[in-house]
Amino acid sequence: MVIMNFWFLISVSLFLFNTSDSLREGDCEVCIKFLEKFISKCPPGTLTDIKKLEGFLKKTCASTGGKDHRFCYYIGALPESASNIMNEVVKPLSWSMPPEKVCERLKQKDGQICELRYDKSIDWKTVDLNKLRVKELKKILDDWGEVCKACTEKSEFVSRIKELMPTHLHASEL
């Protein structure tokens, strides 16, 4: 009986250990997509040479923006990065490890990498601006480079967005 309990505990702990590290749907979205784009853009002969791969990664990261730029900051591919775990990216890629596995390993080193998500795009034909939060309304204005200076209530933000929609959206999006 004691031996059965012992083996049961070992098997349960191994199961939990193995499943906790694997990625779930939506985890490491930015990491996986960035590395897939990066691999597809790599010049021939670069993927097997670690030094060339590292140089091309730094060059690629220098021209990124948004969430991709943040990812590059986290892995240390930017001059202003605080830490550097580029070897954890470059070496596995040179061994032809898939981006999902590379990101899974990066998640163990720095959990912030897998918390990055791309912003969801708004379907302007079906969106009800009155149901969005003020934070989301402010984000829309910020993305457009606009400000609502005297806005204090949600209805004012909504009316400002409706006022600016024709200038920032194409007729096909409305």
TrEMBL record:
Keyword Nucleotide-binding: no
Signal peptide: 1-22
Occurrences of domain ARMET C-terminal (ranges): 126-168
Gene3D superfamilies: SAP domain (1.10.720.30), Saposin-like (1.10.225.10)
Cellular component aspect of the GO annotation: endoplasmic reticulum; extracellular space
InterPro entries linked to this entry: ARMET-like (IPR045333), ARMET_C (IPR019345), ARMET_N (IPR045332), SAP_dom_sf (IPR036361)
Name under which the protein is recorded: Mesencephalic astrocyte-derived neurotrophic factor homolog
